[in-house]
Specification:
alpha/beta; Rossmann fold
């Protein structure tokens, strides 16, 4: 089994440790890894801002770069959803549409890949802390990924996993939404962090660094107990990788 890494912009520039944790886990599990040197942004920020025509060259380039790989894995539900789901809404060149269809069947978010493709549901390790899990919107609603990260969390023998109230409630980030609708976004993340705090968790685990960045910022600013942790970082820490 061989995977190509898709490292989104936020992971590369602000959460490189989470991307490296994903690499360490894949390597630990004996999965061969390729890195596509010429990869760029998938185009999601522009797409969400309405520039659907302008990002077509970016999408077409992405398709060409990754078309020949067996699997593509990313530490991000939202960027995976951009390629798998939303590229199909673009006016992609006709000759690339078969490659896009193939690509959409072999690109996966990290926890989804581990459980559904690699069949790795018992990672083991040790993490004797109370954790809860945040369902990020694109991962849950566009990709349908809910139980996979929870199975990985529960596979750590000494972890204390608790569900917060309404774990699928949006954290309010939404990329440029958090800037354009700042007051609404702030109210949403305040509500989310209230659920996290009420759970008594020391860590809130998620699969999208963007959500975790938003949540962590509010938690720290308001002196709340929990800290945000990417699912890849959790697994790597549990195995001392």
């Amino acid at each position: 089994m061989r995977v190509a890494l898709f490292i989104p912009c936020l992971s590369e520039h602000m959460f490189a440790d989470s991307a490296m944790s994903m690499v360490k886990i894949l390597d630990h599990l004996g999965i061969a890894i390729d890195y596509v040197e010429d990869q760029t942004c998938c185009g999601q920020p522009a797409f969400n801002s309405g520039y659907r025509k302008e990002i077509i060259p970016i999408a077409e380039r992405f398709i060409k770069l990754f078309a020949d790989h067996q699997y593509i894995v990313a530490p991000s539900g939202s960027c995976t959803a951009m390629v798998r789901v939303f590229y199909k809404e673009l006016d992609i060149a006709a000759e690339l549409k078969p490659a896009l269809e193939s690509l959409s069947r072999k690109i996966f978010e990290f926890s989804e890949f581990l459980v559904d493709v690699a069949g790795k549901t018992d990672i083991g390790g040790s993490f004797p802390h109370r954790v809860t899990y945040h369902d990020s919107c694109h991962l849950l609603r566009e990709l349908g990924v809910k139980e996979q990260p929870r199975r990985l969390i529960r596979s750590i023998p000494d972890i204390d996993f608790v569900e917060m109230e309404k774990p699928d409630t949006c954290c309010g980030f939404g990329g440029t939404f958090s800037y354009k609708m700042a007051e609404v976004s702030l109210a949403m993340v305040a509500r989310k962090c209230g659920y996290i705090e009420a759970s008594g968790a020391e860590y809130v685990v998620g699969a999208d660094s963007s959500c975790l960045m938003n949540i962590e910022g509010y938690l720290r600013k308001n002196n709340m107990r929990a800290r945000a942790l990417h699912i890849a970082d959790l697994l790597a820490k549990s195995l001392n990788l």
